[in-house]
Amino acid sequence: MSCTIIVGGFFGDEGKGKIVAHVAHKDKPSIISRGGVGPNAGHTVKVGEKEYGVRMIPSGFVFPDARLFIGTGVLVDPRVLKHEIESVEVDGRVFIDGRCSIIEEKHIERDRGDEHLSKTIGSTGTGCGPANVDRVQRVATQAKDVPELAPFIIDVAQELNDALDRNETVILEGTQGFGISLYYGTYPFVTSKDTSASQIAADNGVGPTRIDDVIVVFKAYPTRVGEGPFGTEMTKEESHALGIEEFGTVTHRERRIGCWDGKMARYSAMINGCTIGAITGIDNVDEACFGATEYSQLTEKALAFIRQAEEDIGVPIKLISTGPEITQIIDIR
Ligand code: IMP
Ligand code: MG
User: 279 pLDDT exceeds 80?
Assistant: First the structure.
């Protein structure tokens, strides 16, 4: 009986996909709907031995009882969508808003061929920036005008608000991270849209008064892909010494790794209107916490880290991810 937004607090890739998957299994929403930019996002969800990477459909797809929506504000690449619908078992559950802008081959070519976007900013090359340009220019194609998408088209905003009227539980899933917000991030080294919780609500056509909780996901050791400032960045030697090495889901580029940034976490929690903090990768802080499912299993080192993070963000941390699998999590909500 609630509407919860889940967003990333740092530069993306905080492990939102895993948090969404867990929250969905626990809260049993009737709908999980995606906001955010488009297929530049990559969510990795690990279920047992299987690892899925999704870029268009909500990462909450692993919860089988929810309908899966793509909100009005999200850019849709029909080819990526088709591929995911075929390779992930979601038949009949995926719906997109008719007003979504479409990414075409020309947008991908413009993204990759543009020196500023591809080199200086280090874009993902998925056509998102140029497609948003076309929307602003009012020349973009909308999903409702693409015949092959006809079976999937609904009014996402109407469906979501109707579900909330019926007292159902809904999750609005963000993508990217606060630090690459077009407005609040490290401009110009950012993505092509705001990424904060308010934007995720707007992307889905759900008004701010209907949101009950905002879960902001922070990574114990934040990461960044692409160019741009990263205040707490470590050297490769330092991160490798900690045993941390990560690669992007979409671009396979090696992610830059940094230390916890309390100042950024505080600002991010403020702008997102965070009500519940989530932290991932606590097993990188203390290996002994790997796989823990109870708060009492956390070590003093991990607890000290969490206390500091709570002081920084100003709200309690109630979700603590202790490993890549969906079951490796502590939830004290
Ligand atoms: P674009 O969104 O493809 O235009 O890329 C702009 C910047 O945002 C680049 O530095 C990308 O690496 C970064 N970016 C875009 N989407 C994501 C994401 O989902 N996770 C992490 N970084 C992203
Ligand atoms: Mg990602």
Answer: yes
User: Which is nearest to 77 in space by CA: 11, 18, 124?
Assistant: 124
- DSSP letters, 25-94, are HHH--SEEEE-SSSTT--EEEEETTEEEEESSS-GGGGSTTSEEEE-TTS-B-HHHHHHHHHHTT-TTTE
Q: How far is the CA of 175 from the centre of ligand 2 (A)?
A: 8
Residue 37 CB–ligand 1 contact under 6 Å: yes
Q: Which atom of ligand 1 is nearest to the CA of 124?
A: 3
CATH code for position 294: 3.40.440.10
The arithmetic mean of pLDDT across residues 309-332, rounded, is 96
- Quick one: which atom of ligand 1 is closest to the CA of 36? 19
Tokens (6 digits) for 121: 């900013």
**How many domains would you assign to the chain?**
1
Helix (H) or strand (E) holding 214: strand 213-219
- Of 34, 124, 223, which is best to mutate to test ligand 1, by the most ligand atoms within 8 angstroms of its C-beta? 124
Q: What is the percentage of the chain residues whose pLDDT exceeds 90?
A: 89
Q: Residue 123's pLDDT band (boundaries 50, 70, 90)?
A: very high
Ligand 1 proximity of 291 Cβ (cutoff 6 Å): no
Residue 171 host element (H or E): strand 170-173
Domain around 61: 2-331
pLDDT of 295 higher than 90: yes
